[in-house]
């Protein structure tokens, strides 16, 4: 039991304490209460995961309640999108409810507050009320209408409901304390006049309750045991409690349980905008194509881009539940989807920037169907056949007429292996009048046992299928685009966030369906977009195989003097470490100890940039993952600071079946 308690987050501990102090377990009830004024985004996934996760942990119901109190901004489209997104994440709600269900009850309670002298109608302008409210350091002052009689307040409020007054002419305020240190307690607004059509109640109401008045009372009506919300609502807790105690006096026989509000840190993400208002601005100004644009941080956008529910849940789990706000590096989210798709996405070949390659000694009329593994991470994924012929497409970037010794792709006179096929040697070129390479002429060798350093992907030209590929990148070029006082977040729009190209893919993709996800070998992860048709495949780039952004790396201690190198033939230290990874977990114990010492010495010569790509190493390559962990341990000892990606790599290692890897992970 003590071991389990150590793993509880602070919200779970609160619940455990309440249960220990006598709360019946069958009284636990949670809710997720979105406002239907926009699509849910990645920030909401934390709140969703917390409430529904607690529901699953304690076998308690979780309500989905729409706090629909502002008809000027709310639409049925948003309600439908929210339900769709939560269901896609894999959660099931106990009841679908709306704050508008409680409009009459809220109105009746407001009447009782007026009768008890705890609410009044104010007829000042909003500017006058703002002046009277004071500042955080200066108390407010009573307004001229604060002491209206109960009869006058009732009369005005009923006429407000009847539609006799214009918008802005009157409001209903709670009568608390205009000198209160918490400005939210200085006679907060309860109702305003809004002559707008409501998506559920139509034109039945022309006064609408404010969020603070509605939210807590809706929790109370639903008998929510723990009202969990993000930290920006912490100052509201005092008002939440004041309102709930007032209505408890009126309805305690009907609703005996008082909800408890508790706050957790919201999810903030680098290079990302979370404000619904600003996200809507991106849509209205044509920067993106709707709420589900794959560049948007909305759940709908992430789904369309190719993210999976399991990757998003893993991300939220890794971030954890905290009491203080912080900004999570978006690279952690990208790391989670890479990890997930690496296990599940079939491997296929596609060429995005083609150049023609002709195998001159391969018969013109010959074609072969070669066996290709679908996913080396999945033993049950099987294999497929890919066609091979004399003329192929390869990536332009995979060929150089002349190149140095560190270019391990194709160069004139050099050899490479074609993935799942033969070894080829570049013999000659065909160029246009400007000197651009139009064709690479090669010869092939059927002896595939020969060792060559480079392996290229390819597609057979006569079998290839044309496809539109949308290469998405981050929407903003600044880590915190909405934190600059002298600039708008719109100033940091990435002009290269979308690149549309014509690509060629292998024929196995002809039957690919919307939402199918693939790894385009050596390129990244892609999925079939909803714009695809039977005549035109459209793929979205989900994420690259590695983080290509020159983001700020963890600080490393540069004062550490490098030791003498253990390099062989001037090979970089990271390459020598990787070579140890091919055999490390198969070495006898004495040789393993010696190898570890040598790896630790080599690790003093590598940087974080060198090892971060190895965090995505295949699960099957346990040796490489072990030597990566050993190397990381040295870097951390020498001053490297942990970041979210490092923590995720360590967490994953601790869950691995390989005992050596787990031991090294525990050591750091």
Automatic annotation (TrEMBL):
Residues in Glutamyl/glutaminyl-tRNA synthetase class Ib catalytic domain copies: 27-342
Q: Which UniProt keywords apply?
A: Aminoacyl-tRNA synthetase, ATP-binding, Cytoplasm, Ligase, Nucleotide-binding, Protein biosynthesis
What domain of life? Bacteria
Q: What class of enzyme is it?
A: ligase
Region Disordered: list its residue ranges: 125-145, 549-568
Please list the residue ranges annotated as the Glutamyl/glutaminyl-tRNA synthetase class Ib anti-codon binding domain: 345-445
Keyword check for Amino-acid biosynthesis: no
What molecular function terms (GO) are annotated for this protein? ligase activity
Any idea of its EC number?
A: 6.1.1.18
Here the segments flagged for biased composition (Polar residues) are 125-138, 555-568
Task: Return the InterPro entries for the record.
Answer: aa-tRNA-synth_I_CS, Gln-tRNA-synth, Gln/Glu-tRNA_Ligase, Glu/Gln-tRNA-synth_Ib_cat-dom, Glu/Gln-tRNA-synth_Ib_codon-bd, Glu_tRNA_lig_a-bdl, Rbsml_bL25/Gln-tRNA_synth_N, Ribosomal_bL25/Gln-tRNA_synth
Per UniProt, residues of the tRNA synthetases class I (E and Q) anti-codon binding domain are: 455-529
What family name appears in the similarity comment?
Belongs to the class-I aminoacyl-tRNA synthetase family.
Q: What is this protein called?
A: Glutamine--tRNA ligase
């Amino acid at each position: 039991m003590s071991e389990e308690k150590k793993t509880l987050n602070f919200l779970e501990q609160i619940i455990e304490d309440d249960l220990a102090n006598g709360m019946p377990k069958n009284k636990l009830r949670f809710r997720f209460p979105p406002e239907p004024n926009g699509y849910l985004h990645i920030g909401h996934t934390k709140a969703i995961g917390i409430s529904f996760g607690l529901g699953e942990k304690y076998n308690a119901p979780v309500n989905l309640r729409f706090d629909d109190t502002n008809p000027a901004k709310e639409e049925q489209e948003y309600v439908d999108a929210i339900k769709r997104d939560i269901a896609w994440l894999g959660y099931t709600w106990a009841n679908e409810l709306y704050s508008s269900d409680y409009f009459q009850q809220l109105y009746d309670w407001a009447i009782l507050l007026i009768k008890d002298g705890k609410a009044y109608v104010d007829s000042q302008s909003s500017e006058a009320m703002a002046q009277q409210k004071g500042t955080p350091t200066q108390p407010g002052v009573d307004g001229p209408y604060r002491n209206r009689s109960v009869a006058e307040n009732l009369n005005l409020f009923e006429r407000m409901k009847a539609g006799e007054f214009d918008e802005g002419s009157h409001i209903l305020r709670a009568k608390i304390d205009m000198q209160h240190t918490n400005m939210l307690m200085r006679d907060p607004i309860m109702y305003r006049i809004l002559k707008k059509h409501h998506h559920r109640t139509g034109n039945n109401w022309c006064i609408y309750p404010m969020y603070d008045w509605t939210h807590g009372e809706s929790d109370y009506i639903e008998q929510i045991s723990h009202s969990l919300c993000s930290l920006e609502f912490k100052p509201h807790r005092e008002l939440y409690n004041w309102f709930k105690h007032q209505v408890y006096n009126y309805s305690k026989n009907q609703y005996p349980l008082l909800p408890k509000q508790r706050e957790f840190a919201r999810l903030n993400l680098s290079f990302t905008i979370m404000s619904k208002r600003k996200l809507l601005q991106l849509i209205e100004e044509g920067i993106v194509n709707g709420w589900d644009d794959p560049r948007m941080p909305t759940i709908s956008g992430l789904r369309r881009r190719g993210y999976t529910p399991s990757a998003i849940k893993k991300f939220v789990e890794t971030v954890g539940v905290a009491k203080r706000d912080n900004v999570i590096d978006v690279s952690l989210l990208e790391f989670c989807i890479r990890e997930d798709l690496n296990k599940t996405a079939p491997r296929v070949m596609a060429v995005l920037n083609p150049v023609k390659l002709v195998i001159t000694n391969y018969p013109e009329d010959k074609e072969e169907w070669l066996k290709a593994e679908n996913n080396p991470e999945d033993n049950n994924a099987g294999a497929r056949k890919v066609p091979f012929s004399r003329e192929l497409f390869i990536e332009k970037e995979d060929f150089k007429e002349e190149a140095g010794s560190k270019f391990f792709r194709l160069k004139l006179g050099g050899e490479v292996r074609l993935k799942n096929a033969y070894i080829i040697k570049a013999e000659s070129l065909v160029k246009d009048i400007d000197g651009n390479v139009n064709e690479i002429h090669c010869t092939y060798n059927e002896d595939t046992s020969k060792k060559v350093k480079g392996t290229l992907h390819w597609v057979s030209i006569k079998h290839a299928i044309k496809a539109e590929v949308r290469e998405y990148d981050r929407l903003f070029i600044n880590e915190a685009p909405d934190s600059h006082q002298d600039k708008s977040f719109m100033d940091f729009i990435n002009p290269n966030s979308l690149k549309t190209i014509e690509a060629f893919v292998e024929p196995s993709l002809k039957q690919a369906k919307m939402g199918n996800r693939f790894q385009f070998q050596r390129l990244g992860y892609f999925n079939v977009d909803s714009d695809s048709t039977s005549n035109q495949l459209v793929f979205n780039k989900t994420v690259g195989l590695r983080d290509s952004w020159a983001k700020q790396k963890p600080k490393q201690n540069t004062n550490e003097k490098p030791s003498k190198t253990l390099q062989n033939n001037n090979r970089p230290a990271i390459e020598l470490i990787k070579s140890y990874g091919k055999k490390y977990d198969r070495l006898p114990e004495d040789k393993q100890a010696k190898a570890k010492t040598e790896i630790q010495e080599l690790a003093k010569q590598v940087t974080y940039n060198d090892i971060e790509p190895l965090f995505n190493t295949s699960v099957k390559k346990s040796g490489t993952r072990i030597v990566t962990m050993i190397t990381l341990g040295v870097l951390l000892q020498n001053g490297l600071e942990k970041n979210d990606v490092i923590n995720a790599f360590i967490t994953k290692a601790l869950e691995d079946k390989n005992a050596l890897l787990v031991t090294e992970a525990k050591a750091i």
